[in-house]
Amino acid sequence: MGWFWADQPKSVAPHPIPKPGATPPPACPMHEKNVTSPTPTPSACPVKSTNHPLFNQLSPPNAPQSSPPAEAPRSKSQSTLSKLNPLNYMPNLSNARPAESPQSISLPLSREPSSIPRGDSDSNWEYPSPQQMYNAMLRKGYNDTPADAVESMVAVHNFLNEGAWVEIQTWERIFSPGLSQAWTTCLSGEEGIAREQAKRDFLAARREALNLPPAEDPLPQPRLLRFQGRPQEPTPKARILTYLGQMFPDAFGNEPPFDRHDWYVARQRPDGSVKEVRYVIDYYSGGVQSTGEPVFYLDIRPALDTPTAAAERIMRWGGDVWHRASGASVRAEAAKKAAEEKSSGKS
To answer: For the stretch 5-29, what's the b/e string if a residue is b when 16 or more beta carbons lie within 10 angstroms of its beta carbon?
Structure first.
């Protein structure tokens, strides 16, 4: 999951970056453990500091030199990592059908744009085409994947990513204005948060039906800077839930997440400043519905990188607990029922 195709501007040298070093299930072939074949040179990097390990310090091409420099030995690891795209930590795969491809049908080459804004431009991220998805699976060695199932896999993949972004937007809407205002929102509980989101969705749909332009959102919108798959590095929460599932399978289940992603988001503050926030996403399989469709659960929350992130998670969880424990939801339901009865009595 969490897989976009990051096209970049040209003519910047490749940058060595950390590799995920993970192998997800066939349904999500977005990581490459051993990248050996040549790929197009990635040419944009979200890291600007020359002291950052992702930045490849190279001499300018026209810099004067007194003597030909000795070529530094380049390790195999550096050569491999330099082929990865720094925006999504993935190799750049072709969108063309390989000559040796075992696929039985031609797959679409078009890529669907997402609703997720990029952090390095005014455009949105794009999802891989079915052909790119199939090429990635071939690269991983999944040669028995039926080509006629790839389009459905891409559709599910895109659907999950859109859902993940909606949840991240909810977190950002609550906490980007600051902790003080966020606490007031959290006191309404998850029920109140969902109710406000439903109101916004209804008003947006109504404006669209009336052919009106979208209403201007008073809050700046977050943007996705980059992302990384780390399926072999379970989060502490996933480890705890897996352990509890082994001890109490009826209460917690015993299936660990099949994938984990880190999304780096640019939080737009009201004062115009930008803060990078890392979100962790655990992907759980929920079995299969009676209709035969698979079910997935996504656990999305800010990573505990800062005390502020810890406070945000505590506030959202604590606000919901207080809302339910104090009977606020019961009182709200009673008030709603009384208002409906009063309205029906007048009519």
So the answer is: bbbbeeeeebbbbebbebbbeebbb
**Alpha-carbon span 31 to 89, nearest angstrom:** 8
- Are 214 and 204 spatial neighbours (Cβ–Cβ below 8 Å)? yes
DSSP character at residue 149: G
- CB burial of residue 97 (10 Å; 0-12, 13-18, 19+): middle
Q: Which residues pair with 297 in a beta bridge?
A: 284
Amino acid at 90: M
How many C-beta atoms lie closer than 10 Å to residue 44's C-beta? 17
Give the separation between CA 16 and CA 228, rounded to whole angstroms.
15
Structure token digits, residue 293:
């469709």
Q: What is the pTM of this model?
A: 0.69
Q: pLDDT digits over 254-279, tens only?
A: 788 989 999 999 998 888 899 999 99
- Dump pLDDT digits (tens) for 226-260: 998 888 899 999 999 989 988 888 888 778 898 99
- Stretch 1-17: mean pLDDT: 45
Q: Which residues have CB under 8 Å from 116's CB, separation 6+? A: 4, 124, 125, 161, 162, 165, 224
Q: Using CA atoms, how far apart are residues 154 and 75, in angstroms rounded to an integer?
A: 36
Q: Fill in the amino acid letter for 58.
A: L
Domain boundaries, the chain: 108-336
Q: Are 172 and 267 in contact (CB under 8 A)?
A: yes
Segment among 12-26, 72-86, 310-324 with least mean pLDDT: 12-26
Q: Report the C-alpha dihedral over residues 81, 83, 88, 90, rounded to 10 degrees.
A: -90
| Mean pLDDT, the chain, whole residue set | 76
- Mean pLDDT over 35-46 rounds to 38
